[in-house]
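Running co-folding for nicotinamide-adenine-dinucleotide.
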Amino acid sequence: MKEIGHWINGKMVAGKSGRSADVFNPATGDVQAHVALASKAELDSAVADAAVAQVKWGATNPQKRARVMMEFVRLINRDMDKLAEALSAEHGKTFPDAKGDVQRGLEVIEFCVGAPHLLKGEFTDAAGPGIDMYSMRQPLGVVAGITPFNFPAMIPLWKMGPALACGNAFILKPSERDPSVPLMLAQLLQEAGLPDGVLQVVNGDKESVDAILDNETVQAIGFVGSTPIAQYIYGRGCANGKRVQCFGGAKNHMIIMPDADMDQAADALIGAGFGAAGERCMAISVAVPVGDATADALIEKLVPRIEKLKVGPWTAGNDVDYGPLVTGAALERVKGLITSGVDQGAKLVCDGRDFKLQGYENGFFVGPTLFDNVTTDMEIYKQEIFGPVLSTLRAKTYEEAIGYAIDNEYGNGTAIFTRDGDTARDFAARINIGMIGINVPIPVPLAYHTFGGWKKSGFGDLNQHGPDSFRFYTRTKTVTARWPSGIKEGSAFNFKAMD
Ligand code: NAD
């Protein structure tokens, strides 16, 4: 059995805790590897070594750090297929989707090549007589990232890129479900010129996460995962005096107005609802058609499209639309939620519970599932399903439809499909959600904008990637300087306005 360890001080090392977790092949249900789960002592030792390595890295000029990022971009492109294959093999998503996962992370590394510009401070010449004032952006020291299973390349890259480009050392605690790609990325960064110890990849579970939260050297934590864990990490990390940003779960609504192009809306819902088996924080899980005629027309367009979807293992070729869920536990949970929807009175239009694929009978597959007549008190509406399940929540008016999205506890993404500019504008202005699509079902901002949800989808003050990430991973220091020629008086005992 393959044993997966940690990346410490520029080398792959075996775990010492004696604890490990199974890594599955989601398409077959087989265990394909064991991943070591680090102890508190292993985590603390990785942090201590990172703190030593950070001193030199933080003092390296930003242009040299940017050149490491530039070379990292080249190496990720060189190894794109290798990375995507390893990603599909552990996560289960299709090969083109795995390449997209790497690509969306790579774009943030491209953005980080601009670090020298992004790290420039501010300067005021002659703020007073002979007085200059300037602000610098300095690295925080050792910072950490804790990442989810569903984007094992993209989210580690979103975290490590800006953190390292700013001059920090970075401790990555990836998901224990698909740990191989983060380790491959660490090797590429070493090849790109990153000094050993500046990036440590520590595999683990709650024990290593708690060790990060309580380690006094760790200055900041970026987390992405489910909302209960996001809240826990935000609370404990902040209580320990760290800078913390945590991005959580989602329940993304797409409103379909009567004037929308119904074919476009149906195509969009199929990709956004079922792509990656619904295991995306930006997946659309609730369709909200306005008016019964719109709802009926939409369902009529969705059903034949759903019947044509091809579900299978990533090895079956690029025309597979989506693959299995990540674990058997996820499979049982999603099937249980579908059953609860039936029990609570939703109309099951397409049922994916009995989906079976010859030769992959033990794989974690769920067929595409569509519900109609869902109401807000049902579990399938209240919970983030994180599976290929689309719920239809009928609304009589636009006000009722926008109200559902506004009242929902999550606020990651949302979309509206309409031809009416006034409605779209009103929607974007009033909605209390972080990322909005207008005739775009999955509005993931590009690397040079920022990504982040509101309400229970995001905790903390700054977003991920884009300029916010450079603010998150640096701290501002402001210097007021006066030289002897500007000093005209003796001691001052009160605050004075600048002359
Ligand atoms: P998860 O919360 O189970 O795990 C995320 C990380 O937290 C992992 O590294 C895991 O090891 C760690 N963890 C798990 N349980 C823990 C505990 N009890 N104590 C401390 N650490 C713990 O999430 P997941 O299942 O890996 O990922 C799916 C979730 O992530 C979904 O809810 C999805 O919406 C969310 N997500 C959000 C975004 C976003 O940007 N908002 C992006 C991707 C995924």
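Result summary
The mean pLDDT is 97.
The CA atoms of residues 129 and 488 lie 9 Å apart.
Job closed.
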